[in-house]
Structures are given as structure tokens and as C-alpha cells.
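Hi all, posting the design record for the shared folder.

TITLE: backbone redesign
STEP: 1 of 1
STRUCTURE INPUT:
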């Protein structure tokens, strides 16, 4: 069992390659207008706080709760990054994101859904209209967003050799299933797996339109 006392004892590896994730969030932040982020199912990935002024992290995992409880350690990790904002707002909610998070509606500019289930299904109310959902194909949340009338598919995040770039080219070639199938919300949720696409991308950006 993993026991960690303070945030700084977590290695970069444990923190899911924050350098790598920093490059991801940097590419996304350069492509959109965002200051406030909501990251349900974050575990200990605090890389958004290297970029954005305000981030709310949500996870049920006790280790994540312990990590974020070490405020001084969190500040130290962020301060080590020379590009990070001076004193970013960092909030952790130790909760199931499918429950009421007691956050305002339409409060954040960026909703993050990476490897953590159907975040878009449960947390979109907190994203402002015009804000961005960053979602990957894992667990089917990108597929769910692709049929969600509240969202328009606006860009892909492409990854190559650890570098990320946001592209709006040839969007009609993405999110096309490899096998012909009827995509429904119930089917996606029942499978709990992502759909295999003809042209995969690392992640997808959707804009909330309603
Ligand atoms: C595979 S990890 C991904 C962590 C992080 N998003 C990343 O990409 O490095 C999935 C995380 O989502 C959390 N999670 C899954 N379902 C959740 C839920 N309904 N509410 C809160 N956290 C959840 C798990 O506890 C776990 O920490």
C-alpha cells in the first residue's frame, strides 16, 4: 500500500509526469481563454496550477485528499515551476463528482476530463457557456461529449514525442468510429470504455454552447 505523508514526497512519476502534463495544459491554455479550471478525478495531478490562476480538484481517493491537505507542500511544488502563477487558488474537494459539489453553476472556463469516467455528464453545469471541455477518449467521456447537445467539437489535442499541439484542421476526420455503430449515451455508459476511432487524437476540446 502506498503511504505518503506530504505532497512533496510524491515523485514526479507518482504525480503523473507533471512536466508532461504541464506541456499539455500549456498547449490548451494557449488555444483558449481560461483562468478558472475544474478537474474532477484529478488524483494528484496538480499541473493545471502551473498554468492557471485558479483550479478546483475533486477526487474520492484518500491519497489525493492527503496530498492536497499539505498546503505548504503544494505551494512548494508550484513555486518550483518558474512559469507558474505567483499565488494560484488551489482547492481540493474530497468527494464523488457525481454528487453535489456545492460549486456555482457556470463558474469555470475549463473542465478537465482525463481518465476519470463521465465527468462531462456530471459536471458540465459548472462550466460557463463558451467555456471548454478538455476530454480524452478513455472511459467514453469524449464519445459522450460528442453527442451532447450542450457541446460543439472545436479542436483536437495532438501528442507527439511528449509535445502537444492544439489543431482545428480536418476536424471531420476525428471522432469517427472505426466500426460502424449506433452511438448512444446509454450504450457508452454501459460499456464504460472509449470508442475506437479511425483517427485518434490524444484529447478533444469541446465548447459549451448552451
Ligand atoms: C486513472 S486516475 C486519473 C487521474 C488523473 N485524471 C490523471 O489523468 O492523471 C482516475 C481518478 O479518478 C478518480 N475518480 C473516478 N471516479 C470518480 C468520481 N466519481 N468522483 C471522484 N473521483 C473519481 C479516482 O479516484 C482516480 O483518482
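Okay, here is what came back for every position:
SEQUENCE:
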Amino acid at each position: 500500500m502506498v503511504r505518503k505523508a506530504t505532497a512533496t514526497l510524491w515523485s514526479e512519476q507518482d504525480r503523473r509526469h507533471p512536466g508532461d502534463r504541464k506541456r499539455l495544459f500549456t498547449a490548451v491554455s494557449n488555444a483558449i481563454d481560461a483562468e478558472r479550471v475544474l478537474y474532477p478525478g484529478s488524483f494528484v495531478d496538480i499541473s493545471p496550477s502551473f498554468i492557471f490562476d485558479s483550479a478546483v480538484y475533486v477526487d474520492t481517493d484518500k491519497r489525493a485528499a492527503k496530498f492536497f491537505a499539505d498546503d505548504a507542500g503544494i505551494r512548494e511544488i508550484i513555486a518550483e515551476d518558474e512559469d507558474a502563477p505567483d499565488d494560484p487558488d488551489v482547492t481540493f474537494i474530497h468527494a464523488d463528482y457525481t454528487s453535489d459539489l456545492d460549486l456555482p453553476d457556470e463558474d469555470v472556463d475549463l473542465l478537465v476530463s482525463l481518465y476519470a469516467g463521465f465527468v462531462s455528464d456530471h459536471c458540465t453545469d459548472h462550466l460557463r457557456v463558451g467555456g471548454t471541455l478538455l476530454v480524452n477518449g478513455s472511459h467514453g467521456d469524449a464519445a459522450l461529449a460528442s453527442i451532447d447537445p450542450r457541446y460543439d467539437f472545436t479542436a483536437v489535442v495532438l501528442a507527439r514525442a511528449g509535445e502537444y499541439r492544439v489543431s482545428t484542421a480536418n476536424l471531420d476526420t476525428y471522432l469517427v468510429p472505426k466500426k460502424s455503430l449506433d452511438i448512444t449515451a446509454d450504450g457508452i455508459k454501459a460499456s464504460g470504455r472509449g470508442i475506437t476511432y479511425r483517427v485518434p487524437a490524444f484529447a478533444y476540446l469541446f465548447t459549451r454552447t448552451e
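COMMENT: DSSP finds six helices and eight strands in the chain.
Let me know if anyone wants the other runs.
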